[in-house]
Each structure stands twice: as structure tokens, then as C-alpha cells.
Amino acid sequence: MIHSVDILLSFVLLSVLFSFGTSRLVVMIRIVAFQGVAAAIAPFFLEHSMSFGGIVFTMSILSIRGIIIPWSIYAVVKKIGIKRALEINVGYNASLFFCLLLIVSAQMLSHKFNLSDFTGSKLIVSAAISLIVAGLFLLMARRNAIVMVLAYIMMENGISLLGAPLSAGAHTIVEFGILLDVLAGVMIMGIMLQSIQNKYVNLDTAQLRKLKE
Amino acid sequence: MDFIFLSILLMVAGTALCLVIHRQFTLMKTTGVLAISAGCLIGLFNSLIQLFHPGTEAFAAAYLHGFSLSFAIDGLSAFFLVIIYFVSFLAALYSFHYLSTPEKALRTGLSYLFFSLLIASMVLVVVAANMITFMLFWEIMSLSSFFLVVYDYEKPENRKAGYLYFVFSHIGAMMLFAAFGLIYGFSGSFGFDGAASLPDWVKIVVFVLAFAGFGSKAGVFPFHVWLPHAHPAAPSHISAVMSGVMIKIGIYGILRVYAVLNDHHPLFGEILVIAGMISGILGVVYALGQQDIKRMLAYSSIENIGIILIGMGIGMMGVSAGNPVMAVLGFAGGLFHVLNHAVFKSLLFMGAGLVIKKTGVHDMDAMGGLMKKMRITGITFLAGSLAISGLPPLNGFVGEFFIYMGGFKGAGMDKLPLILSLMAIISLAVIGGLALACFTRVLGVVFQGEPRSERAAKADEKGPMMLIPMAALAVSCGIIGVFPEVFSLMTIRGVSALNLGYGDIPFSPFLQMTGNISRSAAVFLLLVICVLAVRYFLYQGKSIPRAATWGCGFTRPTVKMQYTGSSYARSIIDFFRPVAYLCENHPPVQGVFPAGTQYSSHVIDIAERYMEVGIVRPVLFFFDKLRWIQQGDIHPYIGYILLAIVLLLFFV
């Protein structure tokens, strides 16, 4: 029987594939927002009982991950007027190929974790691994600083998705911990973005190499 | 246990306050010194009480959910606690007048904070009752002492010394991690208790690893290379604590690991005796070859660590041979020497620090004649020198005497233990003789004769807070030497915590021996007083002419005619040429009207030389080849992380 969460997670896997093939920043932001929403509500459906506190908690996480963070990045994109991120280290076709490999191997690896027994979901581990590794891959493969911020958030989405089944019962603490991470990370990156923009006019992080020595 | 935590809290909180009030320089120093000394006194009294009340006291607290920090005080811990608190207390007093540059106020405040952290971590290392606790505070100890070593970081040689110390202490810590990891791997718990059930070969590996790790902290040859660099770089009260106490924590570690392994394999004792003989003899030979007074004292610490190791090794051989008297004599002698060395080496470092502060030079051959200007320093330094040379009736004699006696008890054994205990006795004698040569040289060159430089001629002895601790230590040298009973009781308490498995420790030989020492010391003192009295009466009413020292009848002698330390030591170093090569720079005197010439020399430390050629250069060469990994762009680094994660996911 297919768990209801798995339908959502299969879309998440597709969205990863999508994010590897696009250069449009707005599309990337929407993808990350969607993944954030998925990461926020998936644990809620995995739990065996719904409580009022759980609903409020899920809603607040959803609003932070799905609305506030993407919206603020969108505002930045609007302000600096960049639509496409063209600074890349790995080409789009190679990225797509890697992504396919990644999804397949994540599916293979998910059996190692043996979490599907008590969550019921078959895809949650592979989706989480895919998100984490995809985030890291995008961090490596794209030189545009905004894409790198998005990739970082993608990775954090993956971590919280993986944290959900592992921390059954105490996932509030895990979730808040990760959110704190995201907040700090995004703030630091925001400052970095500002500095790079001021210093080098565009957002190509490869320029930072000039700071060496 | 509560009092220990109270003392630590007092020290750390008080010195943290120093950072806030660093603009008021004298107030800050007063606060720091008061906090540290009050904390040390509380701890000292508590640990003395613990030491004389057998039994253990334990305390445990959860740490990061997964681990527990547990502490316990037994006889061995209490013995080391007494030493830590006592020397740190006096060093803190000494620092009041020693740290006297208001321009470095913030740095001075920081150094007080690190000093109290160092004391606190040493205390917590010796009361640690599991491996996590031990390693946690071991690292804090290494790091806080590193920051103290680089106090004068403007000088490049001090930064180099700090770096060297950092590398060595972490290589040592790595060995300890390996040893503790083995214990954990086989016993499955972080407690020390599980170590006793390890298979025999694992115990040997653990002991060897732990010996290397603790040896690098204690300064055992050939892991001593950092020591002669770090001690001269650190401020003198820190050198006193580091040399007097911190390196002994390495000795504590070896003893603790030996106790928890609860294995009496003869190899342990043999390793220790051999390492002790090498450290002892080479340490004192290199000490003879040094020009820098603090460097010389650092090498002398290596020598004394050698003596301590010989004592412990004899003890371990006695245990494995089933000879309780030899075992207890060896261990008690080793521990007694730990106490003695803490007392006189901190005294000597304080004296050296004062001399360096007043003359502004480190080179002994530029000092001279200081006994006239710095009377108290000279006399206390003389007391420390006599004690470190192992001469009765001072304290150095007692510990070495126990070790000698332990060695003689080993004469009834067969083959290797017999050879080793005889060699230990011979090398102790050699070490003692060379140490005497070494310290007569220091006294002769630094304190006797005429001043060899202008600064030395103008030296004074201001700063009573520096003189009080030195006087206290010199008096302790005498008290321990003349009344060794109570102090040997302290060492016995320490030994009884080692689980030697003898039940009651044979105690009567000690009382007899220490009683004899006391009596002969009293006779000796009486003799000295008689000689002084006779001299006083004979010289009454006679006129005593005064002339320059070593004037040799010249009407206009110059200070250059004086015997130098280098020439004094040269004939001895020549004898040890294969291990202590003397590197000389001396353009020969040629022609009818020779040009001016000069002479300089230094002794090459073979451990340092071979470590550079054999380890440092190959490692540097190898890592030079890996420089391309470092590119300065963030993307490859993320790529490395990605690669590592993918590999881990697949293969772990």
C-alpha cells in the first residue's frame, strides 16, 4: 500500500531533478519553497495522532520554511534584478545525470537505514538523502551566491526530513535546532551576499578566490 | 570533593574578574593573586586532609547526555593535589611582582585566567575517574599552558616554542586517545575499571602507547624536544609550575594507567628503567651544555624525570618479581622525588626568573657576581642547587636514597632485572655527579665571581613578593630533608592507591631509614654550625683583605679573565661527544697582529636533530605535494565534503 506521504515525497524527488536543470532563480526559489513545505508537513502525517499543538507547530514551521524564507530571498532577487544564474562549475546535462544517479543510489541506500518499518513511508529516507546530497552538490556546482543560499536551505530541508522519523516524539527540539541553524546560516549568507555584491558588482563567488593570501 | 570545586570556582571566577578590571593594573594583579592563592590554600588543606584519611571520595555528573564526568580522590590523586596546590600557590604569589609591565595589562589579566585554568585542569585531571573526564581536562591543561607559553608572542622564537609545544602535546594526546580507545574497544566502557580485564597483549600495547603519550608531556627522552624551548619562552612563574608540576601530571598518568591495568608484566618496569636512565643521563649532559639558564633548568627537568622513571621502574620490577620492599621503595622513591623536584625546580625557576628580570639577559656567561647584589636569591638558589644535586641534608637526597635502596634490593634477582637494577644504580650515581657539576657551574658563573656585563653589575633585588615564595621553597627543601618521616608517609599513601596487591605495605624499613636520615642530618647540621662557630672565633680580631674574585694576583684584572661556564663544562661534554656533539664557532688566531676573534658554542640535541631529519622533513615533503588540494575557492571544498559524505553513505 502506498503511504500518503510517499506521493508528496515523490514530487519532492522530481523537484530535485527540476532544480538541477534550471537556471532561473525564481523557479529555484519556488522549488525550495515547495520542498520546505513538504519537509514541514511530512512529519505531521507520519505521527500517529494529531494534536492541537502539533497543528500549530506544523503551521508555524510551514510558514517559516515555505513562505518567509523563500519570500525574503525573492525580495533580494527582485532588488538586485538578476533573473538567471549562469555562473556554473558543472553543466546542466551533467548535473541532471548526476541527479538521476543520486536518486537511484539514495533509494538503494535507504534500505540500510531500516526506518520504513515504523514510519510506513518508503520514500522518506531516500528523499531526505537526495535533498541533502543535492543541496551539497548545488553548493559545489553553482557559483552564484543566491543559488548557493538556496542549495543550503535545500540541504537543511533534507536534514529536517531525515530528523523527523529519527526523533519520533522529540522532533520539536530537532526542528527548532535546525531552524536556528537555517536562520544563522541565511543571515550570514545574507551579509556575505551584500559584501560580495558591494565588492565585485555581481554575485559570482569564484571572485572570492581573489581574497586568498 | 566540594572543596576542590570551591577552590576551582574561586580561582576561575576571580581571574575572570581580572579581565574586567584590567585598566587598574595593581588592583587586577591583587585580585588575580588573591583569587588563585585563596583557591590553592583551600584546595591544599582539603587535599592534605584527604591524603591522611585513607579511602576514596567520588562525584559524578552527566555531561552532554551521553557521557558522565566522574571524579574520585584516592591517595595517589591526593598526593599530586598537594603538590599542584602548593607550587601553584607560591607561583601565584611570585607573579605579583614578576608581571610588572602595565602596558601589557590585558595580557597579564588573560595570563592570570589561563593560569587558573591550568591549575584547575591539572587538579581535575588527577581526580578524573573515567577516560572522557581525563581527556577533557588533559586537553584544557595542554591548551591553557600553550597560551601561557606564548605570553611574549612578539618574539618569533617564543611563537616557535609555543608551536612546538602545541604539536608535541597533541601528538601525545593522540597516543593517549589510541591507548584509551583500545581500553574502550575491549572493555566497552569509558571507566578505568574495565582496563583490568583486557587481554595481556592489549595491556602491553596500551601501556606502551600511554607511556609515549604521557612521556611527551613529562619530557621523557626522546619526546622532550618541546621542553627546552617552551620553558625559556614562558614567564618564570609559569615555567616553575610547568616544570615543577605540569610535567609530573605525565608521571601521574603513567602511574594511573599502570594501576588500572593491574598487570605486573616485567616489561613495564624494564621500559621505564631504560627510558629513565637515558633521559636522566642525556638530560643532565645537555643541561651542562646550555648557556641559557632557563634552558639549562629545562634540561635538568628531563634529568629529574629520568630519576623519577628509574624509581617507578624499579618499583614495577619489584612488583613483578614479588619483592614488596623493593617495589614500595621504588615507587615511594619515585613519588618522593616528584615532590622534591616540584619544590626545588620551582625554586630554581623562580630564582632564574628573578635573575633574568634584573639582568635582562638569558645567557649565564653574561651574568656573574650576583651573590653580592642578590643575596636572598643567591642563597635560595644555592639551597635549590644543593637539593637538586641530591646532597644531604636537603630533600633531593631522601628520594634518591629510597631509589638507591630499591635498586640494591633488586640485587638478589636474576638476569635482566639484576642487570637493570645495577645499571640503574650506576646511572643514578652518574646523574648525581653530573648534576653537581652542572649546578656548581651555574652557581659559580652566575652568582660568584665578578659581574660580566653592565646590567649584571647594576642588578638589585627589589620585589619582596618574589623573594617570599623562594624563601618558603628553600625552607621546605630543608624541612623535607631533615624530617622526611611525615613526607614519606605521604608517598606511602600514594603508593597504597596503586593496587599492588600486597595488602599491608611493609612500613618498618621506611621509618628506620627516614629516622636514620633525620639523625645523620642533625649531626651534619651540628657539624656545620660547629665549623661556622670555629671560623668565627678564629677570625675574631683579624683583618680580612678583600680582592676581586679570581683576581689571580693581577693588579688590573678584567672580567674576561674569569672562567666561563662553557669552558667548565667542556671537558665533561667532550666525554659524551657521540650523543652531545659540541658545535663550536671559533676563528683561529693567526698572524703577527691577529684580528679580533670570538668563541661561541652550542650542544646539539640528538633527539631534536634526528627528529628533524627523520620525521619533520619527510612529513613536510609529503604534505608539500598535497598543496594543490588547497585552492582558496569554496566550491572544491564543498566538493570534498560531498565526496566524503557519499563515500561514508555507501561504505559505512
Give a summary of the structure in a few sentences:
Chain A has 213 residues and is an all-alpha fold. Chain A is 77% helix and 0% strand. In chain B, β1 and β2 form a beta hairpin.
Summarize this structure as a short list of keywords or feature phrases.
heterodimer, A: 213 residues, mainly alpha, globular, B: 652 residues, two-stranded antiparallel ribbon, two-stranded antiparallel sheet, 4 strands, 4% strand
Shape of chain B: globular
Mean pLDDT of chain B: 87
Rg over C-alpha atoms of chain B, rounded to the nearest angstrom: 26 Å
Task: Report strand order across the widest sheet of chain B.
Answer: 1-2
Give a verbal description of the structure.
The complex is a heterodimer of chains A (213) and B (652). By secondary structure, chain A is mainly α. Chain A has one domain. Helix content of chain A is 77%, strand content 0%. In chain A, α1 (4-21) packs antiparallel against α2, α2 (25-46) packs antiparallel against α3 and α7 runs antiparallel to α8. Chain A is globular, with a radius of gyration of 17 Å. The model of chain A has no long low-confidence stretch (mean pLDDT 80). Chain B is mainly alpha-helical. Among the domains of chain B are: 264-537, no CATH class; 605-652. In chain B, the strands form 2 sheets. A two-stranded antiparallel sheet of chain B has the order 1-2. In chain B, strands 3-4 form a two-stranded antiparallel ribbon. Chain B is globular. Chain B starts with a helix and ends with a helix. The model of chain B has no long low-confidence stretch (mean pLDDT 87). Chains A and B meet through α6 of A and α23 of B.
